[in-house]
Structures are given as C-alpha cells and as structure tokens.
Write a structure and sequence with these properties.
8 helices; TIM Barrel; about 180 residues; alpha/beta
C-alpha cells in the first residue's frame, strides 16, 4: 500500500487540484509541519491550512495568505490530542483564522466563549472564527454575517455554569428551534 501511495500521490494531487480549480473550489492542506510543506502547498494553489502541526508551519501559512484552521475541540480540551501545536497558542500568536468542529460539533460554540479568556480575542472576533471567516474562506458570501441581503442564520445562546447552551435557532430569518 505504501508503494502504491508513493507511485500515485503526485498524480492524484495534480488531478484533484485541477478539478477543484476548474470548479472554483478552495483547497485546504492538512497537517503541515514545515515551512517547506506550506510553500509546496501554496504552489498547488491551496487557500487554507487545516491543522498546521507546528508554529513554523502556521507562521508560513499566514505569510503566504492561507487561512489557518484549527479544531475547536483543541481549544475546549486545552490542547491537541496528538501532541501538535495548540489552537490556543496559535490564537495568542494571531495565527488562528477559523475554527472547525473537527470530531465534536458542540465544541464550536464552547470555543467561541473560551477564546476571549484564553487568547485575548474579543467575543466578536472569536465568533468570526466560526461564522464570517469560514464562510468567506470558502466563497459563501451569502452567510456568516447579519446584514441586509444575507441569510440571517443565527442562534440565541445563554451561558449556564460557563457553558454555552443554545436556546433558539433561526435559519434564513425563520425560527427553527
């Protein structure tokens, strides 16, 4: 299997990049470790750096204009479950743009409320990591902000014992929960 992977990785990557570019889809790298890996991914037209594993890779991604994505569970649990750079450390270095739900969707909202305390983000900036920043990064211009002509997806949240609890949800301006 490793031999097959080695024989096919470059051709498969080229084909995927061509397909995504032809469809206008942004491409994300994954688990970049070195500045060299990031630069190679920039050459392949990557627009997002998902889960850089080191400070070096995250810095290089930002230098090259890639949006840096980290998992919200990393914020909530206090670090990476695999020993990589923590999302909080990247936030403190102003290198965190987007939070993803990764393996725990409820962590998105929880991380938003932790970022101000852990990394000095304003609440609005923390909220942008799960709303406008990801929407913009993938070209979904109709959502991510509350403004005329946008979808008006929103949620009412209450902190209960320091944990955010969703009380109501609106989708396209209509209450659904």
């Amino acid at each position: 299997m490793q031999t097959l992977q080695g024989e096919n990785v470059h051709n498969n990557l080229r084909r995927i990049v061509e397909l995504c570019r032809s469809l206008g889809l942004p491409i994300a790298s994954h688990d970049d470790t070195t500045a060299e890996q990031v630069r190679e991914n920039v050459e392949h037209c990557m627009a997002l750096a998902e889960f850089p594993t080191t400070l070096e890779a995250a810095r290089e991604a930002k230098r090259n204009g890639l949006a840096v994505i980290m998992g919200a569970p990393n914020i909530v649990r206090g670090g990476s479950h695999s020993g990589n750079i923590s999302a909080t450390d990247l936030a403190r270095e102003n290198l965190l743009d987007i939070l993803s739900s990764d393996y725990m969707p409820a962590s998105l909202l929880h991380a938003v409320f932790l970022l101000p305390e852990l990394a000095g983000f304003s609440l609005s900036r923390a909220l942008e990591t799960v709303t406008s920043a990801p929407a913009k990064a993938v070209g979904l211009e109709d959502r991510g902000v509350l403004a005329p002509g946008k979808r008006a997806d929103t949620a009412q949240v209450r902190l209960t014992n320091g944990v955010p609890v969703v009380r109501a949800v609106w989708r396209e301006g209509r209450r659904v929960l």
